[in-house]
Amino acid sequence: MKYIVLGLGHFGKSLAVHLTEQGHEVIAVDKKLLIVEQLKDKITHTVCMDTTDREAMTSLPLKDSDAVIVAIGEDEGASLLTIALLKQLDVRRIIGRVVSELQKTVLQAMQIDEYIMPEEEAAERLAMRLDNVDIIDSFKVSDQYSIVETRVPSKYVGMTLKDANLTNRYKVIILTTVKSVEKNVKGKLVNYKEASGIASSETVLDDQDLLVVFGELSDIKRLIQKSD
């Protein structure tokens, strides 16, 4: 797939590099030449450009991209001007980065339905991990439901999901189990997480596995607790 990432601060840079590593074609844009030069070997294409300049922006393959992500964070004005320009150019999928409630309101008024709040989401995930050491990662699906990655509680190690009966006991759904695997990448052993596929009643819980759990957070926390 082809993506355009506008703004190469910490978030935009990380996003563009990860997408490139996953095999996607990425055009990454920033107005600072030094940043563009530093990343040219890590991202498919890098371009030095003012994203608020209409003439410059029309030189990008906006219509051929699967999504254009506006990752500009520190300059809200430039971010909003860039998104407004993309709307005028009829870009089919625009994803905006939001750093304030006012910016979010403006995006909604501009009918931008997809936006990300990486700082807020990261803070929320960290707070949940600090609140419970067994939670590895998490994100909210809605105000009521979350998906949480957690260690297998010791009392269920070696059991199948059918025998553990977690759905009936805790009103949660086990989506999958995740194992840590080592892969050789350019001569270096790198640890990766690998999902085992959609969990079934016969899935066996290993003590090295991580569970990916869907449900209400209060129910998930009851599962993680050491005793019923």
TrEMBL record:
InterPro entries: NAD(P)-bd_dom_sf, RCK_C_sf, RCK_N, Trk_Ktr_HKT_K-transport. Residues 1-117 form the RCK N-terminal domain. SUPFAM superfamilies: NAD(P)-binding Rossmann-fold domains, TrkA C-terminal domain-like. Pfam families: TrkA_N. This is TrkA family potassium uptake protein. It comes from Sphingobacterium oryzagri.
